[in-house]
Amino acid sequence: MESESLYNLLQLPKVTGPPTEEELPQGEKKKYLPPTSRQDPKFEELQKVLMEWINAKLLPEHIVVRSLEEDIFDGLILHHLFQILTGLKLEVEEMALTAPSQRRKLEVVLEAINHSLQVEERQLKWSVGTIFNKDLLATLHLLVALANHFQPDLPLPTNVQVEVITMESTKNGLKSEKSVEQLTQCSTDKDQPAREYYCTLRGSVPLGCVLTQM
């Protein structure tokens, strides 16, 4: 089966809408990916490359990831992927069947991953809560970080950015704000050290990135 056909078979579509006022407690925020962002070709390509990379790594374990949005949250995939990438063994239960045990396992696995990536906590774009709640953006940030660290030659599509709507529940109702989130580097040159990118937004139109040398 061709790679493209396999990806289309495995990537189960998920239709989601923005959270309602009843679903979002007052004072909390939640990011929402509109359909136009989900259908962006580069966004879809990023998921395809990451999924093929993970499935290739997990092939000896006979584990198949069918959806990055649905299959990563409980820590099982991340557990096996981390052990394969690092050669380290994590002392966590293999099969966590209840939500509390799945969350505990995910917490242990993410702590090990964050330590291995040597990313400061304030710089993390994912958390136990966001991964466990199947936040696709947080999951992609985590997987991109793993790929860049352990397999920097993986041909991830460059300058992948998506429009994100942040919903906030206030005493006056739901408030929304648009922004652009950067998922991969602006430059194809991954060997350039210590670069940062900045993205600007005018209305809902991304103006691209400006690279600055640190």
UniProtKB/TrEMBL annotation:
Record's keyword annotation contains Disulfide bond: no
Protein localization: Cell junction, Focal adhesion; Cytoplasm, Cytoskeleton
Renumbered residue ranges of the record's region Disordered: 1-39
Biological-process GO terms, alphabetical: actin cytoskeleton organization; cell projection assembly; establishment or maintenance of cell polarity regulating cell shape; substrate adhesion-dependent cell spreading
GO MF: actin binding
Family, as annotated: Belongs to the parvin family.
Protein name in UniProt: Gamma-parvin isoform X2
Keywords: Actin-binding, Cell adhesion, Cytoplasm, Cytoskeleton, Repeat
GO CC terms, sorted: actin cytoskeleton; cytoplasm; focal adhesion
Name of encoding gene: PARVG
Principal cellular location given in the protein's record: other
UniProt keyword Repeat, yes or no: yes
Gene3D superfamilies: Calponin-like domain (1.10.418.10)
PANTHER family named in the record: GAMMA-PARVIN, PARVIN
